[in-house]
Amino acid sequence: MKAFIYKFLPIVVGVILGVLAVSPPQFLGLPLPVRILVGLPAVALAFLLFTIIMISAAMPQDIKLTPIEQGKVTEDMMDIFLAYQDAGFQLAGPPLQVETAPPAVLIPLIDRTGQVYGTIFRTGTQPPKTACDMVTVFKQPRGGLTTGAAVEGASLPASPGAFHQVFKDAEISTLYHQHLTALEQLRQQGLTVKPASARDFPDDFREAINHSRAHFFRNPLWNALVIIYRSSTGTTPHLGPIANQPVARQTLARLRESAGLRG
């Protein structure tokens, strides 16, 4: 029941807030233009607070991962899995149900070098969305590198030490090449990689979610505004390779200052 509610809740709330924005209820005998002028800030605040609630539900603390049967893996996920296989990835465990609200399905993978995780993620939202990411975790300093093909995957403001690359609608082989290129550049800056393994995947996944959640709730109002803006405009400062991103250079500069990385 809870999963069903969260699946359709954004649609219901969106419709209600939309109606309230253009046709606010009558109160104090005010004319419609005045009611709209007064009601719009309240609707905007309600939408902002609802966004924070939904993000909290999508990134629960110490997220639960439950193995599921192969039958819950959809055809589009299998197509991406075959492309991962062609790039040299293999399964890092069984398909998992990710206990977000609503629950999602995740296929964990690992590359042949033992330094890159691959993920295939299908949301439980309505409509569902399927995406893939490649992730490398840094051992020192704390952080990681994520490369994906969906702009929506980089709408969340990056936490300290986190690098993102988005190559819109790119093939798995292209994402992997770009990921390894960026990884080598970061190694040259002094970052050390935590080995990827099937045994460590659940803990590494949970830690990444916990880290992102903690960063978001340090300033939830501002971060929610950023997410709303990026989602509505389809933009992110993480487009393209990290070598071309001003935000990546800023992240490196902060790491040099805090962790003593070489310049």
Task: Give an account of the 3D structure.
The chain has 263 residues and is α+β, with helices and mostly antiparallel strands. It has two domains: 2-58; 65-207 and 238-259, no CATH class. 46% of the residues lie in helices and 17% in strands. The protein contains seven helices and nine strands. It has helices at 2-22, 32-58, 75-86, 172-188, 201-216, 220-233, 246-259, and strands at 65-67, 90-91, 96-98, 104-110, 117-122, 130-140, 143-148, 162-166, 192-193. β3 and β4 (104-110) form a beta hairpin. α2 (32-58) crosses α6 (220-233). The mean pLDDT is 88.
Strand count, sense and barrel status of the largest sheet are:
9 strands, mixed
What multimeric state do the chains show?
single chain
Shape: globular
What percent strand?
Answer: 15-25%
Distance between the termini: 53 Å
Order of helices and strands: HHEHEEEEEEEHEHHH
Rg, alpha carbons:
20 Å
How many domains, in number, for the residues? 2
Can you count the beta strands?
A: 9
Structural class based on helices, strands and sheet pairing: alpha+beta
Task: From the structure above, extract its key features.
about 260 residues; alpha+beta; nine-stranded mixed sheet; 9 strands; about 15% strand
